[in-house]
Amino acid sequence: KDRSISTMCQQLSDALCQYQSIRFITVRNKKVATIYYICILFVLAYVVGYTIIADKGYQATDEVAGTTTTKVKGSGSIGNASTLMALDSMDLVIPATEVGALFLTTAITSTPNQAQSVCDGNDDAAVCTSGDSTNCTAEYFSSKSLGLYTGDCGSNGRCELFTWCPLEDDSIYEIVQNVGNFTIFVEVDVSFDQFNVQRTNTYDVLGNGRPLDGYNLFTLNEMLQMATGGAIADYTEVASTGAILLVSSVWNCDLDKNIDQCNPEYGIERIDGVEGTISSGFNFRSVTYDVTKTHRLLEKYHGVRIIFICEGVAGKFDLAALSVTLGAGLAYLGIAKLITDYILEYLMPQKDTYAEYKYHHIEDDDDEQAMPLQTNLRG
């Protein structure tokens, strides 16, 4: 054990008490020189062709910052000839303004004239019979019901509730007609603060002061088609369930070119229809009370919620960025030497001679003289 520790200490001392310096030798061999310069060319091609030109390593970059606002226009309706009700965007866009998002109603479930009273429970209330109402007192407050259990069984075999009656039946809804043709004007304002550049998508492209389809104006049907690759052609296919769309305006701009070429590209995807989900679509409820607060209108809104985000990067020539990229790229030139040294040391016929000149061990400066720094090996 003592001998093992002594050996380890000696090895540690040998490792720490030595210094390795670079030794330069010159090898006059056409094959080796050709391999070396081919490696150099490949490295330079990568540095110049990819990191500097293709990847634009000569540019400083700045991420986009921006905001999106929308305006919705259109006319729709619910009901039939005797109960027809005309609706517009002010009725169907809830709330009227929202930062970076909007909700457009496609179907409505209305429960009017609700008042505080006793009524039969719905399918969420506990099951009971006229002779057994024990389930109706088990939970006075039930998270599954829409009110308070009275302790009695209702006429429909469900526990009786004290709540806002009549209860909502959300299996009954009215689809809002023509919502798919509502137009959505999308205004995107962005800036690249590092370069003091501001851009928007509301330029008068056509010269007539009007929005441009596909650039800043879309219909709801068009957005649904783009988001699903054409799988959904009309809003009526999701009217009763709703949907959530994510709209990305991507600003990847080369500011070394004409600034007018800095325009967005749009990406739209549906993000709520994940396979296996227990909650697809989008809906919410809202109530409106009368002045006495004794009656209310309960409405469940189904619709398409659209979320807008801005992303992208702008680049512009910068000498400092070019210097950093070039300096980092030139460090790859060392790969050419590594490859050439490997070939010399392991693959060439004179590999032993090369190793002899390259590696020279000096035990004591007073006893041995170092080999000359430059030695010619002729192949």
Report on the structure:
The chain is α+β, with helices and mostly antiparallel strands. 24% of the residues lie in helices and 33% in strands. It has eight helices and 19 strands. Strands 6, 7, 8, 9, 13, 15, 16 and 17 form an eight-stranded mixed beta sheet that branches. Strand 7 and strand 8 form a beta hairpin. Helix 2 runs antiparallel to helix 6, helix 2 packs antiparallel against helix 7 and helix 7 crosses helix 8. The longest helix has 25 residues. The radius of gyration is 38 Å and the shape is elongated. The two termini are 51 Å apart. The C terminus is likely disordered.
What's a quick, concise take on this entry?
This protein has 379 residues and is of the alpha+beta class. The protein is built from 8 helices and 19 strands. Helices cover 24% and strands 33% of the residues.
What is the strand and helix layout of this fold?
Blueprint: H1 2-16, E1 26-28, H2 30-54, E2 59-63, E3 65-73, E4 75-78, E5 85-88, H3 89-92, E6 101-120, H4 135-138, E7 148-153, E8 159-165, E9 174-175, E10 183-192, E11 197-200, E12 217-219, H5 220-228, E13 243-250, E14 253-254, E15 265-270, E16 283-289, E17 295-311, E18 313-317, H6 319-330, H7 334-346, H8 351-358, E19 376-378
Parallel strand pairs: 1-19, 13-17, 14-18
Antiparallel strand pairs: 2-18, 3-10, 4-5, 6-8, 6-9, 6-17, 7-8, 10-11, 10-12, 13-15, 16-17
Helix pairs in contact: 2-6, 2-7, 7-8
